[in-house]
Amino acid sequence: MTDILRIDGLKTRFFTDNGQVNAVEDLDVRIEDGEVFGIVGESGSGKSVMALSIIDLIEQPGRITDGEIWFRAPDIADELVETDAVDGDYVDLRAMSPEQRGLLRGSRFSMIFQDPMSSFNPSITVGEQIAEAVEAQRRARSNPRSLDAKSQHYGLTDYLLGGVLSSKRYVSEPSLDRAIELLELVGIPDPAERAEEYPHEYSGGMLQRAMIAQALAGEPDVLIADEPTTALDVTIQAQVLDLLAELQTETGMTILLITHNLGVVARMCDRVGVMYAGEIVERGTLGDVFDNPVHPYTQGLLGSIPDLQGVAERLQPIEGNVPSLLDHEMPDRCYFADRCPKAMEECLEHPPELAVNDRGQHATRCYLAETEYTAAKALPTDYFGATEAPAEADTAPEEPTATDGGDHQ
Amino acid sequence: MSDVHQPLVKVDGLEKYFWENDSLLDRLLGEDPIAVRAVDGVSFDIREGETLGLVGESGCGKSTTGETLLRLQEPTGGAVEFEGNNVYDLEGKDLTAFRREAQVVFQDPFSSLDPRMTIGRIVQQPLDVHEVGSKAERRERVRDLLERVGLAAEHADRYPHEFSGGQRQRIGIARALALEPEFIVLDEPTSALDVSVQAQVLNLLDDLQADFGLTYLLISHDLSVIRHVCDRVAVMYLGEIVEIGPSEEIFGEPKHPYTKALLESVPRASTDERDRERETISGDVPSPRDPPSGCRFRTRCPEVIPPDDLEIDQSEYRAIMTLRQRVEQRAISLETVGDEDRRVDDDGEFVVENVDAFVADVKAQILETTLPPREDEAVTEALAPLAEENWDTAAERLEERYGSVCERANPDLGGGTHPAACHLVSAPGDSRSDG
Questions:
Q1: For A374-409, what is the HEC assignment?
Q2: For residue B149, what is the nearest residue in chain A, using CA coordinates?
Q3: Nearest residue to A342 (alpha-carbon basis) of A385, A404, A274, A409
Q4: Do A206 and A102 touch, CB atoms closer than 8 A?
Q5: Residues B37-63: pLDDT tens digits?
Q6: Which residues in chain A are contacts of B386 at CB distance < 8 A?
Q7: Which of B150, B224, B267 sits opposite A389 (nearest CB)?
Q8: pLDDT tens across the length of chain A (409 residues)
Q9: Best B155, B200, B235 residue to mutate vs chain A (most A CBs within 10 Å)
């Protein structure tokens, strides 16, 4: 399998009044063509910021400060051959001009957001909004080199006339027809009628389907789905996941699925990266990460979900809270050490990514990949100062070795 | 402690309707108010010391049930008995006493705490309102409570924004515990929290129940949380309870097709998940403004019951029932079915020249399966009036042949320890007619 996306050393920071927030910290990912790659993590772990960094939608006060995002696009690589932005078939999105990068959005990447209700314009019909995306792609394709390709042959006069004359409107008949086709593709019943309705007339599940339709308008190579089912009920979530899986099989597109729901990851993904404090702390195939987790955070995450089948045993939560990510509060040690039941002396130095086995897929940012945990090397329990939750600390086992993060296996 | 047979909370036929188009202007214009039946006649008991789970999808009325039974909202009908007294008849001192005994923890820890009060004052407020103890005693009690829920007593002078989501939920729990209640309604207490923090809060709730002998009503959409915490579970759909019973039975042997579908839909966090065959239900939850006749789940039910004299595959019957709903709701764009140019004449009027081809197009677009010849013929004949935009005749013809017991009668929940409101469970004879 060839990689479609290679992210090297990505750093995205937010410069806020409280200080610099390292939302994404030195992140490396390789995503293969045609796979479903899952990014899982808790809120504030940087997973959404990573996705927004890829499609270049980071807003002030945020900025990508370092790193390279290589995207496989032989045709674009041919055009840009003289510049630094090309390496074989790959182009570096960060080295391209903003205009060129803008052209990739929609046609090469597109994104589905979490909340369908707030992602649509409430004053335009759903059909027209999808048709707009189709139209933008159609215009861009008709002359890809032009910098303002998306609005080609559409000036201010057209816009003003469009209010009166339907023939002058941005969205053309063929685009509207295509929008209806797309709505049908994502399983909206009676698409011709529903295309003329406004977002408030749709249910949450239907609107999420419509958003998927819009994302598919440019036939993208990579679909980034940021918590696509979090706002939906379970029965609707099941429908939407089935739809995504179906579309992926049909079109062969690559999906980067971002979620906090481990069940959704298990259902959909080939490979998984677990994010914590802006880093991928463990990565591998689904089996590697779910059946043989090495990082205590991954173990803790799996141990803290109540089991639908199992008997009611006590849950094994991860103590403490997610770190603030403020630069001056992030010490140069393993970011998880203060919550980790197996914190050792080594952990006071920031761990590099270490391979767990020789097969090369499974890797983790934890010294436990190479060393065994022994009580002798353990840090004293109150090493990181008295944290909150003293009541929980009382009930914590005296011997740290007893907590291995749960009995999920 | 009361004896086992006497439940702590007894909900009997509780109804809560909200009225739309009910303003003075609407009345003057002569518009009829529309009832939104959020809770439509639910009955259940909560026994002392147990945790009853109330589970369902958004909009099914579970939170309204919780709020109404605490009398945070006045009911439209029905009664709730708490320790033998009807909650809605209470006045004055008795009502104040009830408010002390029954507390609530809300879903969103970010909007349920006053941002301008210190958390000490937030937790102390119930004590002030009910004038418990002296000032010094109240302060001492607040410190105890904060420590009990896993915060430090020194935190009392801080403001809510200084705490994380999980910590704020602990503050909400401390506030609910302040008056030493017997009964707490937990309305989605962990749905705004991350999984690792959720586990902390669930463990805390578990400990508190054991220490203080609390009774919980846990409202949640998360089935794994319900499974983990609850002794008994009630499943709600569109304002009604469709199944209620002990946790192991609901999760082990669900009876109602809705409960089954709900359980099937939850993705499991294990590597077997990808290969798990599951049957998902199609469609959306209908509007509570105009709920379906008979069994409310029938519009999505994969096991909807065909008439006795009809020999048909279940999946084919389901497809026909979906077609019927589309015809009854007139939700088929006749002008654009198949080849659209054929359907509109020069004046823009809808005209069908070839009825057979038109009906074939409608079937091709709406029906998800191919029917056996006999049924195909019947459906074709029934759909023919659509060519003249005669929806009612088409709907009647379809109903005549395919009408189900599920649409004629609303099944009763029935009695016993694990009843389910479904015609497949109860014999159709003892169901009430929907009229």
A1: CHHHECCCCCCCCCCCHHHHHHCCCCHHHCCCCCCC
A2: A391
A3: A404
A4: no
A5: 999 999 999 999 999 999 998 889 999
A6: none
A7: B150
A8: 689 999 999 999 999 888 899 999 889 999 999 999 999 988 888 899 999 999 888 888 899 999 999 999 888 888 777 677 788 889 888 888 887 787 788 888 899 988 888 899 999 999 999 999 898 888 777 765 554 555 556 677 777 777 776 666 778 888 999 999 999 889 888 888 889 999 999 988 899 999 999 999 988 999 999 999 988 889 889 999 999 999 999 999 999 999 999 999 999 999 999 999 999 999 999 999 999 999 999 999 988 888 887 665 788 888 887 788 888 888 888 999 988 988 888 899 999 999 988 877 899 999 998 888 888 888 887 777 644 433 333 333 333 333 333 333 3
A9: B200
Determine which helix (DSSP H) or strand (DSSP E) holds A284, and give its type and residue range. strand A279-285
Classify residue A270 by burial, with Cβ atoms within 10 Å: 0-12, 13-18, 19+.
Answer: middle
pLDDT digits (tens, 9 = 90+) for B340-358: 556 666 676 777 778 888 8
Q: CB of B270 within 8 Å of any CB in chain A? A: yes
Q: Do B331 and A189 touch (CB under 8 A)?
A: yes
Q: Which residues contact A56 (CB under 8 A, 6 or more apart)?
A: A93, A98, A101, A102, A105
Q: Is the dihedral of CA A400, A406, A407, A408 positive or negative?
A: negative
This model of the complex carries an ipTM of 0.86
* Residue with token string 């929980």: A392
- What's this model's pTM, rounded to 2 decimal places? 0.87
B24: which 2 tokens?
A: 């003075």
Which of B 92-131 lie inside 8 A of A, CB atoms? Answer: none
Q: Write phi, then psi, for A283 (nearest 5 degrees).
A: -145, 160
Q: Based on the number of CB atoms within 10 Å of its own CB, is B336 exposed (0-12), middle (13-18) or buried (19 or more)?
A: middle
CA B19 distance to own-chain centroid: 19
Q: Does B251 touch chain A (CB under 8 A)?
A: yes
Query: Which three-class secondary structure string do you get for chain B?
Result: CCCCCCCCEEEEEEEEEEEECCCHHHHHCCCCCEEEEEEEEEEEEECCCCEEEEECCCCCCHHHHHHHHCCCCCCCEEEEEECCEEHHHCCHHHHHHHHHHEEEECCCCCCCCCCCCCHHHHHHHHHHHCCCCCHHHHHHHHHHHHHHCCCCHHHHHCCHHHCCHHHHHHHHHHHHHCCCCCEEEEECCCCCCCHHHHHHHHHHHHHHHHHHCCEEEEEECCHHHHHHHCCEEEEEECCEEEEEEEHHHHHHCCCCHHHHHHHHHCCCCCCCHHHCCCCCCCCCCCCCCCCCCCCCCCCCCCCCCCCCCCCCCHHHHHHHHHHHHHHHCCCCCHHHCCCHHHHECCCCCECCCCHHHHHHHHHHHHCCCCCCHHHHHHHHHHHHHHHHCCHHHHHHHHHHHHCCHHHHEECCCCCCCCCECCCCCCCHHHCEECC
Q: Which helix (H) or strand (E) holds A237?
A: helix A234-251
- Binary contact (A234, B223; C-beta < 8 A): yes
A318 chain-B contacts, CB cut-off 8 A: 196, 199
The residue written with tokens 């009647």 in the block is B396
